[in-house]
Specification:
The chain contains 5 helices and 10 strands; from the N terminus they run αββαβββαβαβαβββ. The chain is α/β, with parallel strands linked by helices. The two termini are 17 Å apart.
Length: 208
């Protein structure tokens, strides 16, 4: 029974290790021991990482001068009905419209770029979410938009600003979204409760 229950949940996050690639210019992940079983009698680690390391959630303060940080949001803001959008052949507004979005949904875009996470091209050659789609997500009042790329767009980050100004939070560096194709699911995208512009998150899909 326990094994069957576990099969209903899919982890969409990437592991956080010292080898996890980070966005160019961001702090590298560092994990070392602050205490160990010998001589301290217990283990305690020291972790240093950027607020946008691995799978993470962007808060409005990431791009907006007066935007709130993550700790301003209630926990239920990070939970919602999931909607899968196949973007492996590019982003299209028609595909987003077919997803039948409703207020409060968490929309996940599957580009397939997560397969290239260990390659430098992951941070340079990723597809950007078009601004017209960002505007449509804001219009539909979705809660969050997630991608299996390092970012929803390239500099000057107009899509970031459009989504965050429209109260759509952003999830980046998702993994394994192909497992959601054709499924009904609920998303739990829970970041650390930091007074910060973003935070790593454990993102899980509960299959229906």
């Amino acid at each position: 029974m326990e094994t069957e229950a576990r099969k209903m949940f899919l982890d969409l996050s990437v592991p956080l290790t010292e080898q996890t690639p980070v966005y160019p210019g961001d702090p590298q992940i560092r994990i070392d021991a602050a205490a160990d079983l010998v001589p301290d009698g217990y283990r305690c680690g020291r972790v240093s990482l950027g607020t946008h390391a691995g799978t993470h959630v962007d808060a409005p303060s990431h791009m907006l001068a007066d935007g709130p940080s993550l700790d301003h949001y209630p926990v239920d803001r990070f939970v919602g009905r999931g909607r899968y959008v196949d973007a492996r052949d590019g982003f299209t507004l028609d595909a987003v419209r077919r997803a039948d979005l409703a207020e409060g949904d968490i929309v996940l875009f599957h580009t397939g770029m997560d397969a290239a996470r260990s390659d430098p091209s992951y941070f340079t050659d990723f597809p950007a979410l078009p601004l017209e789609i960002a505007d449509y997500l804001v219009e539909r009042r979705v809660s969050m938009a997630g991608v299996d790329t390092c970012s929803v767009d390239h500099e000057p980050f107009e899509v970031h600003r459009a989504l965050l100004a429209g109260d759509v939070l952003i999830i980046e560096n998702l993994s394994g979204l192909d497992r959601l194709r054709g499924r009904e699911f609920r998303v739990y995208a829970l970041p650390l409760r930091l007074d910060a512009d973003g935070a790593p998150a454990r993102v899980v899909a509960e299959l229906r």
